[in-house]
Amino acid sequence: xxxxxxxxxxxxxxxxxxxxxxxxxxxxxxxxxxxxxxxxxxxxxxxxxxxxxxxxxxxxxxxxxxxxxxxxxxxxxxxxxxxxxxxxxxxxxxxxxxxxxxxxxxxxxxxxxxxxxxxxxxxxxxxxxxxxxxxxxx
Length: 138
Description:
disordered N terminus
């Protein structure tokens, strides 16, 4: 392993996880500078999610990433469908990937999902971002 390659590449076996190029030490050092640098990295879906599985909170990062993709949906029909899927998978109590969100935070989503906009999950996404930053940022 070269001096410019991070130890994470070896642990997460990049060839098995779809990381097409090696993560540089410089990039990892940027992750340590801020949570924002970490979550905006192209490797976050693989590396950070793997870490969060060990912390039993990977559903939060999944929700955050799906919300980022949701914001890019331009078709109202697709947005409605995706909003319902997001709600059923992450927000609804006892859902398969229920996020760490209290009941008062869920109420606005229940209203928003009826007529979803591009920003209808922003509040909940901010809440989970703060949870991840405070509780799960290594």
